[in-house]
Amino acid sequence: MDRRQVAVPVADLLDAPEGERARQVVMGQDVEVLGDGDGWCQVRVLAGGYVGYVWSSMLEEPEEVTHRVTARSTHIYPEADFKVRETVALSHGSRFTVLREVGRFFEAPQGFVPKVHAAPLDPPERDPVAVAARFLGTPYLWGGNSGFGIDCSGLVQAACLACGIDCPGDSGMQAEALGRAIGPGEALARNDLLFWKGHVAWVVDEATLLHANVFHMAVAFEGLHEAIARIEAQGDGSVILRKRLEILE
Q1: 145 and 234 inside one domain
Q2: Which structural domain range is residue 41 located in?
Q3: What is the reported pTM?
Q4: Which residues, other chains included, contact 66 with Cβ-Cβ below 8 Å and sequence gap of 6+?
């Protein structure tokens, strides 16, 4: 396998060279190069299996990463000092190698990352909704997968991957791959998923959803029954599937 890692904070994964954004990848994610030429690489993202095109210059030889960004976003600093000017912003899910700990920072090859915004790759988190809630207020972005912009399926994928659940990138794929169908007589519970045609939302509790949506143009909480009624009234149909994930204990 020709394995590479994403070397930039966020890279658009396009449907063709110079094409439209299909999804995004963030720093430290592993990809398999399927082909390259004219400055482009066709890649398959190892986490989720999505295939698309990125600039070859956005990839680098892989290293063994040790930690991940757990906050919605963070900064890398050139020194272990919060008062110096940051060098770059990183999204949730970005991965990096810790060289050593320096006070309140992890030192990585790229610079210094606040400890409070990161954690080791293992163990995974246990509450997808809690992870998704860190994105509250993040602007809606079609095909987005980062703390700078995200869509409904990106929010589901980010939360699942943080919890060690393999997850495809699009809502249609997620409806097929994730969890088990909830029967008509079963009550909804936290971390369940509701699927519409082209949309997906997290169940927070029996009365509340959390989703990235165009109505709010952001990640937002919304009343479950109000959201179902609103989505149907705007012509996008009713809920077509309810799924329950198997959460790692």
Answers
A1: yes
A2: 3-60
A3: 0.96
A4: 96, 97, 98, 120, 121
